[in-house]
Amino acid sequence: MGSTPAALRGCLLVLTAVLSLVMLPARGQQFPSRPITLVVPFAAGGPTDTLARILSERIAADLHGTVVVENVAGASGSIAGARVARATPDGTTITIGHWGTHVLNGAIYKLPYDVIADFEPIALIASGPQLIVGKKSLKADSLKDLVAWLKDNPNKATAGTAGAGSGAHVAAVFFKNKTGTEFQLVPYRGAGPAMIDLVAGQIDLIFDQATNSIPHVKSGAIKAFAVTSPTRLASAPDIPTVDEAGVPGLYISYWHGIWAPKNTPKDIVDRLNAAVMVALADPGVRQRFAELGQEISAKEQQSPAALAAHQKAETEKWWPIVKAADIKAE
Ligand code: MLT
Q1: Nearest ligand 1 atom to alpha carbon 189
Q2: Which atom of ligand 1 is least distant from the CA of 166?
Q3: Is there a common fold for 34-127+255-324 and 129-245?
């Protein structure tokens, strides 16, 4: 009789241990309990969409779930920003964004949300420069020719942008200021549709993310004048830097990250971060990104804290520059 409670206690301990072992994986599988929507704040077929689609499959595999890419274009990504900022913070609505959406928009637009305070950073993904690209029939074969041609034809040329106030718009304004040229800006719902018109010869130029331009430069459908970085791209080594091509210092680095709505629980943020890190370590993903001129962030830079720090530093750097240049969304 005296041994019964001890035996019972023993049994209970074993049962608890077994139950917790059984329940551990079940708890791990609770997220995601339904498909995750990865909001792309621009039109399909553009650079952000391309990166999202390369990553989403690998992220989904790691989460044993489904990731649906949804394009919510308009107002340089701020329509999507508002939608994700207001979404239920349960990790099933997240967004890929970049220097434009999560830094510039805060300086240029009157937003119904805060680009920093209303989001939970998940991971800093990668960065890449822009290419200054032109339609094939343009009467210029180098950046110097282009500047001379623009000076001879003030306000005649058109440059497509990914929306008023987007990175392409900001880069075009910096270029105009540095070169003393004038041309018109044509806003699109993303760099994807702008590229369709450049290839078709409907517009003359784009200050475009390399991800979007490289395949078209390689196929000969458009021409590239320069890369907006101090070094050439390994995947497109024939394209000169802006320094080499005659507009020194016009450096633009377009970095991408992933965010969830503010107040998404930390364990879900950490789970999403782990899945993104697995995706970024995948050899197939790394090769595709390299081909597109994307430098994947170093492992220690892929954390939520690193994205928060980078976004803050970029905001402190760019907001005064953009405000001093008086760049407006209208
Ligand atoms: C896009 O996907 O259209 C771009 O990320 C837009 C941009 O260059 O800002």
Answers
A1: 3
A2: 9
A3: yes
